[in-house]
Amino acid sequence: MTKSQKIIKGSIPNTFISEWRDNLGNVILGSKLDLDFNPVIQASGLVENFVIVHYQAKPLFLRRFGVIADGEYFSVAKIESKTSYFSVLVHETNLIKPPNAVLIHPESLLTVKDDFALITPLKIENN
Fold first, then answer.
1. Along the chain (127 residues), what's the average pLDDT of each consecutive run of 10 residues?
2. DSSP state of 28
3. 3-state class of 76 per DSSP?
4. Which of 31, 33, 42, 106 is 20 to 30 A from 71, alpha carbon to alpha carbon?
């Protein structure tokens, strides 16, 4: 059975729904992830030019990494980073939706090709 992942951008910035579908287009039971990155972004103190990485905790046997940059969300199987990162952990009692634990790469750019994400330093041009 072929499975595909669908990512829907929410009406609020930095919110997304990720769900897996079977070959008939039906949502696979237990695969829906309703994500809100705003609490971890706020906790990081960053405003722009960052990449966030998290582990997609479901569905079982289809788990991947989620990455967000510039308001766009991607699901990938492999990540390579050329930048440093720091962790942010927001206690679950302060959240309505996941994720609560992420790695944040400040001053970074994201390039995604197929199932691979590359995180590189933001290049600042000198005038």
1. 86 94 90 93 92 89 92 96 95 85 96 96 73
2. P
3. strand
4. 31
Q: Look at phi and psi of residue 114 and say left if phi exceeds 0, alpha if psi is from -120 to 50, else beta.
A: left
Domain ranges of the chain: 37-121
Q: What values do phi and psi take at 77, rounded to 5?
A: -95, -20
Q: Which residue, among 50, 49, 35, has the nearest Cα to 86 in the 3D structure?
A: 50
One-letter amino acid at 50 equals F
Q: Name the β-bridge partners of 97.
A: none
Residues 6+ apart with CB under 8 A from 2: 22, 23
Q: What are phi and psi of 42, to 5 degrees?
A: -60, -40
Distance CA 127, CA 111 (A): 25
